[in-house]
Amino acid sequence: MRLLVSEMAGRASIELKGRELGFDLSQDPEVVTRVTNRVKELESRGYTFEAADASFELLLLEEAEGRRPSYFEVESWRVITETLTHSRPGEEAVSEATVKLRAADVRYVVTGEGNGPVNALDQALRSAIVQAYPEIAKFELIDFKVRILDQGHGTDAITRVLIETTDGESAWVTVGVGANVIEASWEALVDGFTYGLVRHHVE
What we know:
Among the domains are: 7-65; 72-132, Double Stranded RNA Binding Domain. It has helices at residues 7-20, 29-44, 53-65, 117-129, 181-199, and strands spanning 72-82, 94-103, 106-114, 140-149, 158-166, 171-178. The radius of gyration is 18 Å and the shape is globular. The chain has five helices and six strands. It is an alpha+beta fold. The two termini are 28 Å apart. The strands form two sheets. The protein has a three-stranded antiparallel β-sheet with strand order 1-2-3. Strands 4-5-6 form a three-stranded antiparallel β-sheet. β4 and β5 form a beta hairpin.
């Protein structure tokens, strides 16, 4: 779904994907133009939609319907990783994440633990949303890829994360970009759960 190949090929790809989603974008060239421009701008910031069809479909739905699909509103999130001073060699650090959000008009404050910050965030986000949308229980993170962009900046480099999620029947990939791997992972996680709920036609 890279528009860098050519403008014409990119617009044709958008129309084709729109048709798959039930939108006849050939009748609405303004939407195609908006999506094309947004994808170009996002790709210039490090996003890629070539391998992240789910994130692209959310973007297209947002432009075609005038709003982004939304099932929950995040108030805040945080994650900490702790290593005990007297831990034994080889003993893994423990990460703990806290997520505050509203879903189906209910406020949830949930804490999750994991063997890493992304795993902890996944557990906390999942535990909060599943109380409003039981479909989430089927979702599972099955692949996680990190790429450092602009490597000349070292630890200040922009990070891109691709996350693959499955509901046991099919899988989808979402992308996140941020100043660090946790920020980028959070964006991809939120997109992954949102897209999964769209797939399940949750109202």
